């Protein structure tokens, strides 16, 4: 029976972004981090090169600011953590098995390396409020497992983009910000877009987000979201506005007029879909009072608009918004309606034109469609607005309650992109 040779041993003493690397033959060299590779990954890469040359795994002992670790590195760079275990000749070394014949030599080399490391590193005070030098949030799963032994795996491009989008939608601004979701055609996804934007901002930014059903004509936002403790609509809020704006009002008083979404962490201000439009019209001055209440209690308002672009409340919504989001489907009619809205706003006044130029188009796939159909609409809007985002088909959006957790992962990522695109310009005051 052929006995496999024991793994060769190498040592690495980490000091900031460089390390002293001791080769199995006793030679030393310096390993440094690069812009693409941190120091611990650079050490593993060097050990893997040694393993390839020797055609056998390398036992790597690392010391530094994260303590001492004993690892087994093979020629592919795969890392295995070694634990204390007995060996054939009865010698036990913590984290590594050694032969009696050369165990003393290995221990002496390790002690020499430690003495060299201590001499090379001046004492420094540990900060109690700052993360340790080089410390990262490694997360859970396999990445977290190897991260806890000091090996960092760089996130993928998709993970980096997701983290950037999450940071964008988590921002808080000085003063209330408003987003208008509008398209003059019905059934194009305005309510879905409103609910999903509010959910993303509420979940990532910590609440204080209002989805406002700014609709004279049977708005359905209330039908597809949770009911609160009170059967209240915007018509109940209007006569209570002066009380809610009084200096003695409590932040919880608004709860009697809105409907909280328990999982998605935003509130809904409902219209009454059972009344005719003539019974729930909101005039210019009334809208302004309601907006004062919203700004008093919320950091962000997302308007779900109706289809009547001549209504006072619709026009006042446009005048009060920082950002315009226009939903459309892959159907030519809904895309044309979106384009006509942009044309009309550009002709209305300077501020409306700025909203149109800075608009975000959201192309939602209500049904599975051919890629060429979606691409034609995306290309038609590119260069005409600031951003065009697509949301894939998801059966959870077709009917029933709108819940962010019920969506497929790809759909959640798509709405995160949409919300980030809309939020990226909320910092500046509207012109």
Automatic annotation (TrEMBL):
<protein>
    <recommendedName>
        <fullName>AAA domain-containing protein</fullName>
    </recommendedName>
</protein>
<dbReference type="InterPro" id="IPR050625">
    <property type="entry name" value="ParA/MinD_ATPase"/>
</dbReference>
<dbReference type="Pfam" id="PF13614">
    <property type="entry name" value="AAA_31"/>
</dbReference>
<dbReference type="InterPro" id="IPR025669">
    <property type="entry name" value="AAA_dom"/>
</dbReference>
<feature type="domain" description="AAA">
    <location>
        <begin position="177"/>
        <end position="308"/>
    </location>
</feature>
<dbReference type="InterPro" id="IPR027417">
    <property type="entry name" value="P-loop_NTPase"/>
</dbReference>
């Amino acid at each position: 029976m052929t006995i496999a040779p024991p793994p060769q041993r190498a040592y690495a003493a980490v000091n900031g972004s460089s390390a002293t690397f001791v080769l199995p033959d006793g030679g030393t060299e310096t390993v440094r981090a690069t812009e693409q590779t941190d120091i611990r990954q650079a050490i593993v890469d060097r050990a893997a090169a040694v393993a390839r040359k020797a055609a056998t795994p390398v036992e790597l002992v690392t010391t530094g600011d994260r303590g001492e670790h004993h690892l087994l590195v093979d020629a592919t760079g795969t890392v295995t953590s070694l634990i204390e275990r007995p060996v054939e000749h009865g010698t036990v070394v913590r984290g590594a098995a050694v032969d009696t014949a050369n165990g003393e030599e290995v221990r002496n080399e390790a002690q020499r390396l430690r003495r060299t490391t201590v001499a090379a590193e001046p004492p420094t005070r540990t900060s109690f409020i700052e993360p340790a030098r080089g410390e990262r949030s490694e997360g859970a799963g396999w990445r977290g497992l190897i991260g806890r032994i000091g090996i960092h795996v760089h996130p993928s491009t998709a993970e980096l983009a997701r983290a950037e989008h999450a940071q964008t939608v988590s921002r808080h601004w000085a003063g209330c910000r408003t987003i208008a979701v509008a398209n003059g055609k019905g059934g194009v996804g305005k309510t879905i877009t409103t609910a999903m934007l509010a959910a993303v901002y509420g979940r990532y930014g910590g609440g204080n987000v209002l989805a406002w059903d700014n609709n004279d004509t049977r708005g359905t936002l209330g039908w597809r979201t949770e009911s609160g403790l009170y059967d209240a609509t915007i018509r109940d809020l209007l006569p209570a506005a002066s009380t809610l704006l009084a200096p003695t009002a409590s932040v919880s008083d608004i709860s009697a007029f809105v409907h909280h979404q328990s999982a998605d962490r935003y509130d809904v201000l409902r219209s009454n879909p059972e009344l005719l439009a003539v019974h729930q019209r909101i005039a210019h001055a009334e809208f302004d009072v309601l907006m004062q209440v919203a700004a008093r209690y919320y950091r962000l308002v997302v308007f779900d608009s109706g289809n009547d672009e001549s209504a006072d409340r619709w026009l006042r919504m446009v005048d009060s918004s920082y950002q315009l989001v226009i939903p459309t489907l892959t159907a030519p009619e809904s895309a044309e309606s979106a384009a006509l809205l942009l044309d009309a706003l550009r002709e209305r006044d300077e501020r409306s034109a700025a909203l149109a130029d800075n608009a975000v188009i959201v192309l939602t796939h209500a049904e599975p469609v051919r890629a060429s159909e979606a691409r034609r609409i995306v290309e038609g809007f590119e260069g005409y607005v600031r951003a065009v985002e697509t949301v894939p088909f998801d059966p959870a959006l077709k009917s029933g309650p709108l819940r962010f957790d019920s969506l497929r992962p790809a759909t959640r990522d798509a709405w995160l992109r949409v919300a980030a695109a809309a939020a990226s310009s909320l910092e500046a005051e509207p012109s």
